[in-house]
Amino acid sequence: MTSASTRVLVTGGCGFLGGHIVQQLLHDSATSIAIVSRNPKPTFDESRISYHSAEIANKAQIQAIFDKIKPHAVIHTASPHHTEHASLLKRTNINGTRNLLQAAKSCPETWAFIYTSSDSAVLSTQTPLTEDKAQLYTAEHYPNIYSLTKALADASVLEANSTELSTVVLRLPAIYGEHDTNFLPQLVSSIRKQEHKMQVGTNEKLFEFLYVGKAAEAHVLALHALLDGQGLSSVAGEAFFVSDGVPQPFFDFARKCYAAAGSPVKPEEVTSIPLGVMQVMASVGEWLYFIFTFGMKTPALRRDGIDHLNKGCCWSIDKAKKMLGYEPVRDQDEMIAQSMEWAMKSC
């Protein structure tokens, strides 16, 4: 690193991915970490970590934290769940990211900014997509509000790259692993409700998946690449696809998880529900929720979630390997087994 002591600000550092990033940052004894969260819950008994309660959409609160911490780098992982209300998604992902970038640019000590983007921000593809061919959704073309807000934030971080502030975007697919609060709990719930033998659609579209430990590692690699370059790094202003490098149909991956949890599903046991039927059910459910809650609540089954099963993503991770030194998991099945062992005990 370029400094004897490196200060890193992590938004969402109490969350699933953010927590794993913080854990890996602690491996460097010269690094201190400031975690910014709406409701920070101290999870690390470590003097090098400080916790700060703030809404990243509140410009004054964010500026005050930068004035106090003077971070050398920002790792921005915070984002509401894709099912959250549109106003929260816009406020956090668009306005919040803008506030963080402005504060980082105005702080002389801040050199690097790393943003956690998503497969939802990129037009889907079924052939190995490289970053130079990727297309972000725009205000004129997007499938849902979450995709739009992630895409606009992604673009704003890349546009902010300059000699004063080096930026990197990491585009991640579905993440799994220990302390997951979303994906694995849903799979465990399916097993316990005896719903794990069902699938939606024909299960033909390819998807990427990413073990959370490797997702965290990619952020740390990007951090080192930017800080070591002091604004001259070849990775500055770049976006990277990161995954396990094993594209596969969504329900194939899910059934690997079921098998690892001791609930294997034989091909002849699978019950397929047509995609169109689920799309109609989801749309009706959202409409009813809107009517009876005056738009204040949304159902767990959402149309955009069902639509996502008909898109998928298939990426090349060669750029991340070459420029960041990223290496995917050696054995995805081993990581699945390890993750499901945790999930069955904890969810």
UniProtKB/TrEMBL annotation:
<dbReference type="GO" id="GO:0005737">
    <property type="term" value="C:cytoplasm"/>
</dbReference>
<dbReference type="InterPro" id="IPR002225">
    <property type="entry name" value="3Beta_OHSteriod_DH/Estase"/>
</dbReference>
<dbReference type="GO" id="GO:0004029">
    <property type="term" value="F:aldehyde dehydrogenase (NAD+) activity"/>
</dbReference>
<dbReference type="GO" id="GO:0016616">
    <property type="term" value="F:oxidoreductase activity, acting on the CH-OH group of donors, NAD or NADP as acceptor"/>
</dbReference>
<dbReference type="GO" id="GO:0006694">
    <property type="term" value="P:steroid biosynthetic process"/>
</dbReference>
<protein>
    <submittedName>
        <fullName>NAD(P)-binding protein</fullName>
    </submittedName>
</protein>
<dbReference type="Pfam" id="PF01073">
    <property type="entry name" value="3Beta_HSD"/>
</dbReference>
<dbReference type="InterPro" id="IPR051783">
    <property type="entry name" value="NAD(P)-dependent_oxidoreduct"/>
</dbReference>
<dbReference type="InterPro" id="IPR036291">
    <property type="entry name" value="NAD(P)-bd_dom_sf"/>
</dbReference>
<feature type="domain" description="3-beta hydroxysteroid dehydrogenase/isomerase">
    <location>
        <begin position="9"/>
        <end position="263"/>
    </location>
</feature>
